[in-house]
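Hi,

I'm pasting everything inline rather than attaching a file, because the server keeps stripping attachments. The sequence lines come first, and each chain or strand is labelled.
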Amino acid sequence: MKSTGVSSNLLTHGCQSRLQPGQSFLRSLPRDWQGIPRDFPPQQTGSTVQSSSQNVSVALGDRSYDILIESGCLPRLATIVEPWGVRFGQGKPSRKAAIISDSNVRYAADIAARSLREAGWACEVIELEPGEPTKRQEVISSIYDRLVAMQADRRTIVIAVGGGVIGDAAGFAAATYNRGLPFVQCPSTLLADVDSSVGGKVGINHPQAKNLIGAFHQPLGVVIDTDLLKTLPDREYRAGLAEVVKYGVILDAEFFTWMESHIAELNARDPQALQHAIARSCRLKADVVEHDEYERTGLRAVLNYGHTFGHAFEALSGYGELLHGEGVAIGMVYASRLAEALGRIDASMTRRQVELLQALHLPTRLPAHLNWPTTEVIGRMRLDKKSEAGKLRFVLPTRMGHVELVDGVDEALVARILNS
Amino acid sequence: MKSTGVSSNLLTHGCQSRLQPGQSFLRSLPRDWQGIPRDFPPQQTGSTVQSSSQNVSVALGDRSYDILIESGCLPRLATIVEPWGVRFGQGKPSRKAAIISDSNVRYAADIAARSLREAGWACEVIELEPGEPTKRQEVISSIYDRLVAMQADRRTIVIAVGGGVIGDAAGFAAATYNRGLPFVQCPSTLLADVDSSVGGKVGINHPQAKNLIGAFHQPLGVVIDTDLLKTLPDREYRAGLAEVVKYGVILDAEFFTWMESHIAELNARDPQALQHAIARSCRLKADVVEHDEYERTGLRAVLNYGHTFGHAFEALSGYGELLHGEGVAIGMVYASRLAEALGRIDASMTRRQVELLQALHLPTRLPAHLNWPTTEVIGRMRLDKKSEAGKLRFVLPTRMGHVELVDGVDEALVARILNS
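And the predicted assembly:
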């Protein structure tokens, strides 16, 4: 494993002099926060070194952890996780694990289990149903029962092998069993690689709201074996790419340009291109999370670019008609058009996004049959977590690689964009 | 409100030079940890200033909070909580609260609600059943439903008004709703004042184990109105005193001596004596929690003096025959006798504890009808959370105000103590 330019903590460069240890430089900003600082994130120095393995360090004090990105690393999971367990146990190793997975990626869970067992671990695989309904209380209770039955103690590691649903459910069980078991993520989808594996959000759904019950529970570490993406269905793979594009738009113009010049490689799931796309996305998300771990300053909201529109589209189509990433792809284009109408960007900024998304075979407008009344879409948007007291708020670009949080957008203008 | 000698962070005096910011000086110790450092906690300088209000600061980085101890402060709850809410909201105040309580102390919940409503807050009271069975998943789900119905958002404060059960259940709901709502404790029992209000442990029971499902969720602040103790049943009050005695034995010889010379005041629930006993207990527990927030270094285990015996007695008598504090009182005497038998202390050290506990009308040995076979008691002890791989571990005194964690105690010796 070799550290690359990607893995350095970029943020400390620009802000070191102003920061107290452990203090966020954005802590004092949220009240009238309108955008991330112009120099966020600081540019990388030097070119990106490609290697067979990359490591992204998420710096969160004593909750810091590493994300390893490597083709074919899952079969040696035990050697990766062992030092993390020793660190957690303050010298005493962990030797017991509960692998939580679903039937779609059971083969991967078995690879992980074999690695651990061969290294002498006691290890059980808990297989859940694939799909969103798994994120409910009864399933969490069944995980607790299994953990009790295997006599899990405070050093038993919960290992999620799967997509976002498995990570969220397993992570929530880990967060709440014995006041927090150590937790390792082995994401199996591109979306989970670049989104849910960074930031520690875990949770389940309440009958009335998605992800309402949950916690912040940072993992001990994340192991991304890019080989797992080889079997990912095409539509899911592309939906993950939408989030990768998002990181370029909101935080890194250079990364966006890199994607524009690596379309063929991304479409072909080229291992080197994938590794870079994932590592850079994780690094960018980590930069944000490191400065707003608990979503308090408003900075973490930048990650929701395209999501105010996208969530409304997803919800109205009943979750399933549109994948999350597809909703985000379409939502980014609408948000960009809104920024255009507000005079924040010119048309070329939207055009570049549309062209990149289309080249990656992602939708850039709603299918013709999804033609809800404008008032219904806007009503849904008011329920968005970012909205306050029913007023619409949007994350909008001002230039490639930079976004701002914009309050009090005229609803008539939003309606015009929706109808355009 | 006036700060007293009690409220200064005593620990920083002794260790400042060795500590990095955010680093625990005990972080490296747990592997062969045998006892707390000889200078822990550092002695107070100067005498304790008595005032009408005391404040104990719990220093946990950005999770730091204050414990206010004052007779009759609940009716002005709004003025106390308001600045905490502003700090949490980074300038934006909280104006919505869910007060969670039970029928035993509903009058106190109503006092709290009145204060908030008069200050313009939207506020609901959620009344739960009193008693341990409230700490179950179905009750937590019903709290979630109430929070959804009142449209709780991220700044809605959950306020627990009650004893340990209410604090644990309300705190767990707060920890897991919307990935963590701000939480305020208003404990109504002496045990909750000196134990569960410090340290952030919240949780519920699993059918097979107490407190198995839970989290660390530090409160925004704790408001201890000592007037609530006026209506506390005598037996519960005394059970709380057992934990106060424990703090003296494990951490503060001077405090133990103070109790010996204030028996009449403690038995009469004298407000000044109570305030001092609570503030000193909270300060001592805070000193420990500040250095082992997540129970990893082993330091926090010192708080379990008397608990290895005590928990076994409680469990065998079926929870209810013995109150927790009564089990601890008896357990401390057995643990002290064990330390004597091991040559760690002389008989006077046990005698002082027995005499103080008896003067406070607490039991110092098991009632005659609770005569379980020794093997059964030892079997229970092996299930203790402190035990590792089935070996007995005890927190044992070496002198007044100092304890050590002792491994590998001969079971025959434990049996002899149990039969003595």
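The domain at 241-419 of chain A is CATH 1.20.1090.10 (Dehydroquinate synthase-like, alpha domain).

If the labels don't parse on your end, tell me and I'll reformat.
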